Structures are given as structure tokens and as C-alpha cells.
Fold this protein.
Amino acid sequence: MKKYDVIVVGTGNAALSSAISAKENGSEVLVLEKAPKEKRGGNSIFTDGAIRFAYNDLQGIKEVVTALSESDLSEIQMPDYNTEDFYKDILKVTNGESNPELAKFLSNESFETILWMKKQGVKFQLNENQYFEINGNKNFWGGLPIKTVDKGIGLMNALFKKAQELGIDIIYNAEVNKIEMDHNKVSAVNYLDNNKQRITVNAEAIILACGSFEASIDKRVKYLGEEWEKAIVRGTEYNTGDGIEMATEIRASKAGHYDGCHAHTTDYNAPKVGDFSKPGDIYKKSSYPLGLIINKNGERFVDEGADFRNYTYAKYGKETLRQPDQKAFQIYDSQVSPMLRKEYNLKEATKIVANTLEELAIKMDINPDNFTKMIEKYNSSVQEGDYNPSVKDGKSTKGIIPEKTNWALKFDQAPYYAFPITCGITFAFGGISTNIKAEVLDEQNNPIAGLFVAGEMVGGLFYHNYPGGSGLMSGSAFGKRAGKSAAEYVQINKVDN
Ligand SMILES: Cc1cc2nc3c(=O)[nH]c(=O)nc-3n(C[C@H](O)[C@H](O)[C@H](O)COP(=O)(O)OP(=O)(O)OC[C@H]3O[C@@H](n4cnc5c(N)ncnc54)[C@H](O)[C@@H]3O)c2cc1C
């Protein structure tokens, strides 16, 4: 097979961003994907397309969503959000453990990156899940006002189209399992094709963008703990940590929170791994700040109103996993049910409806006495105050544990709704050590010549939790950078030779 300048491993957002960027910067690029063509696009194709960036103010939004008219803009109430806000959000939710260099890079590059994505043909729209309509205004909250048109499907279709236009070669059913070195520089990859034949392709530079290990049961148990064995995998079945293994075999240093991951509360009856015939993130259950979350003993176990959903959802999946039978219920009364996200009304959603608290408890298979007592106690703890779901309204409970610190309304208006949930793992936080040039670093912090990394494989960015919409931005920003760095490396290497 012909020798390429740059080989990119994977076809998710990070991989295709890397490939397009490397090509833009003058390299001949080959992309190798483990999945068959019909299962391409990795976790990225399963996403809701919500993408975080430092837009500064409404003017920044207008640059990205050019279709917005002056009249549309006049209905929008949106807090400003700059690079410092993005950076602080990362540091806040990661308990200060995020690598500051990487976090700064991500926040600083985010605006330029989203404009670059737009240039590649990705289309953006306002994120309808990130505002509440109040007095005719769209009141945005949580720093995530934009999503890609047609979610992850639209994003990936645009990137595949661009890759094709640029003449980037893609081989499917190519499970990359080894990186070869020559004189301390990467020189080739080996992959297994459909017939398990080993194929070698030579290249000057390699970009690993093939996800973390969330879809490997063995690695979940090894790194995250035994309780993760049965977690639902929300995205692709192919992210089994191969990239981490290949990189560490050639002395790359691991980095990041290996016993941490992003996990979301997910429909109890969702498929055990992401179903490529139904992408679009339809099983997640994100509206819990409007209601309550209880386990099968009828007990609450988290502060549903601790913060906007964007800053708590990635860690509440794990809390659900810790409950009896790894099961819980989100419950809503009819004063808030009209505000539930669309996923709650899809035919795929498991939904329980009841006219009394007792009936709801029986349908959830929870002891009705325990349940009604818990609700009575909760209702009597709710404090007076103005309710406003688009700001942290401080309308809280008092005297119960856990408290609900915002958006606490009495649970007393029938009909009542319950949605059984469990934990769905999104991606693992463990990755590979890198710097802001996306170079892979060895244990002495020296770059491994010719090896670059992007996306979920970037280690050290996320610990414990993550600000919603950062995964796609990380894939795009580090992917764009990895492609550029790889192409520059190839140029220099060619001159040297
Ligand atoms: C249901 C769901 C919803 C989400 N919603 C959002 C959202 O709205 N906003 C957001 O920011 N983030 C979201 N995320 C997180 C987001 O998907 C990831 O952070 C991001 O897409 C990861 O991109 P990536 O390119 O690194 O990995 P992926 O998109 O997973 O791509 C990795 C690719 O590598 C391939 N691969 C793996 N091993 C090999 C191998 N050995 N050889 C060749 N190829 C290999 C895989 O098949 C896959 O194609 C969501 C995730 C899920 C699962």
C-alpha cells in the first residue's frame, strides 16, 4: 500500500477534524476505522450535538448561527460567556484537577474552532434544550446555547462529506492494533482487516483519535470498578481502549482520571450498547432539576438542584449506579411536566403515569407508605420563593438530606410521572499524556516523534465531571491542532531526510 504522510485512527469528530486539518495543511491522509461503514462515526454520531464554546455575547452567537434575524435576537436573553468563564467551569467541575494548560487551550481555542467547523460545512442552530420561555423571551442558562443541526448525525455527515471532497482515503473494518517505530520515530501502523489479515501501512505521522475504553467490560471493571460491568454503553461498541494500549506499548505516558468517567442517567430499558440505527441521544434523561430522583427504596440520593443540568448530569449517572439494582426513578408532577425535554415523550421512553402518589409508588414497585412519607417530608421542607428554572433561583428545601438547593417546588399536582433510569457510561476519562500541540508525551514528558492524539484519548482534561458540550469541542479543538501539528512535523521531517 502507498505510504501516507499522516494516518488518523478512528472516524469520530476528533479523527475527522484531525484528518481535515492535516489535509488542509498539506498532508496526504489516510483514515483507518475499526467499525464497518454503517457503524462509522464513533460516539460522535450518537451525540446531541451540544457544543460548548466561548461566544462572549450575542454577537458571537450571530457569527455562528448566521440565519438568526434581528427579531430572533431580540427575544433572546443570554448570559455572556467568555474564555475565562469556560476555563473556570472546567476547573470548577473537575475539582481543580484539570491540567490547566490543556483547559486553557480548550477554552481559548473554542471560538476559532467553531468558526473553523462552520467553514468545513458543519451547521449550527440554537439549542432548544438550553432555554426556558418566560414572558415571550428565550431565557438561556448554562453556557451551552448552540448545537449542530441534526445533532451528531448532522455533524458527522458534514465532516464525512468534507473529507470526501478533500480526497481523504478512509478504510473501514480496519482494526489498528500496533504502531511501528523506526529510529525512535513512528513509521507505520498495523491493522487487522475484515478477514483478520494483518496489513501494514507506512506513514510519517500518526494521530490517535480512537476513543477511550468505555466499551470494554474488562477495562471498565479494571479501572472503574466491578459495579461498572453492567453499565449501559451509550455510544459505540468499538471504543475499547486500543489506542491507549498501542500508545503505551511505545512508551507513551498515561494521563487523566483512570477511575473516573462521564456517565449519564439513561432510560432503564435503553439498548445495552449504542444502536447505530437509532443515534441522536434519545435515551438520556436530563430534566431532573425540574423534579426528584429516588431509588427503589423511595429515597432521594442527590441534590437534583445543585446546579444547572450541564454541570451535574455527567456525575449523576454514577450515583445511579450505586443504588440498589443500579436503578432509580425520575419523578415529575404536572406543573413541571410540560417543561420536560423531548426525549421524555418519545415512543422509546419508558414512562409511568399515575393519578395518585400511592398509584405511582405501586407502579414503580416501591413501598407506597415509604414513598408518600418521603414526599410529605419533602413537600413540608420546600421554602417559599420565586421559581425560575433559567437561573439558579435559590428556591430550596430546608431540613432534609439531601437538600434540593434550587428549583424546589412541592410535588403535589396530579397526574404524576415516573421514568425508570440506570447508568449509561458515555466515555472514560483515562487517556494519554499530551500538550497543547497534541503531541503524545512519554514518561519523561518528551514528545514521541510523529505521534499525536485528539478527542477522548486526550488525558488530563476531565476529572470527576465535565461541563456539558465540552467533549465535542475538545475533539474539534485538539483534532484541528493535531492535524496541523502532524502536517508541520511531516514537512520538517521531509526536509531533514
Ligand atoms: C449518547 C452520547 C451523547 C453525547 N452527547 C454529547 C453532546 O451533546 N455534546 C458533547 O460535547 N459531547 C457529547 N458526547 C460525548 C462525545 O461523544 C465525545 O466526547 C466525543 O464525540 C468523542 O469524540 P472522539 O472522536 O474522541 O471519539 P469517537 O467519536 O468515539 O470516535 C472514536 C472512533 O475510533 C474508532 N476506533 C476505536 N478503536 C479503533 C481501532 N483500534 N482502530 C480503528 N478505529 C478505532 C471507533 O470506532 C470510533 O469511530 C456524547 C456521547 C454519547 C455517547
User: Anything to note?
Assistant: The longest strand covers residues 416-428. The domain at 4-260+429-496 is CATH 3.50.50.60 (FAD/NAD(P)-binding domain).
